[in-house]
Amino acid sequence: MRMFRARPPGARKENIMADKGRTNPEVEAEVRRSFEKMLESKSGSGYETTLTASWVATPVGTMLAVADDKFIRLLSFLELSIMERKADLIQQQLGARLVMGDNGVLQAMAGEMQSYFTGALREFATPILLHGTSFQLSVWDELRRVPFGSTVSYADLAQRIGKPAAFRAVAQANAQNPIQVVIPCHRVINSDGRVGGYIAGVERKRWLLDFERGVLEDS
Fold this sequence. Notes:
Layout: H1 24-41, E1 50-56, E2 63-67, E3 72-77, H2 86-94, E4 97-100, H3 104-116, H4 134-143, E5 152-153, H5 154-160, H6 167-175, E6 188-189, H7 202-218
Helix pairs in contact: 5-6
């Protein structure tokens, strides 16, 4: 297969990570600084578990990866617009204190993400551990069955989990997906073909969909 290099799709020139005229590196650095500063202000002393967090670079923004020594527990794009209390909220969500660092699981995830964004990887193998309601888990499990480069509607996804009337709840579960890209909630679109919403930003969702289609076209 010819290698597909990650690039903004088509002829679009806009920088989806731009923020008031600043460059990507400036925005990315501020995201990291803001999060790490907030993390330092949260002792996490009330949590018995400590998880390791690190940054994963992608062509569409830095992602925060959180893991124990066996599983990825969180993989999420972070934006300056949602940084307020984010460190505290993530620690509450995971029930653990976060420390910036590295381990073998995080290294494996970073390597797989790099391969994904060059078009060389279509299915992720790094183990993940999910916590959610039985409904959320059923949605996330079904999402992992949506093939690379394909899309499914919220209504179709509701049908697949045996709850055809629950498409709005499916959309909410999508928005609460804790491991983005690996659990490909970006592949869920509206029944009329419109891209729809995305917790990490609609432009990023369009980029990911166009990227995956481009990989298939270049195969």
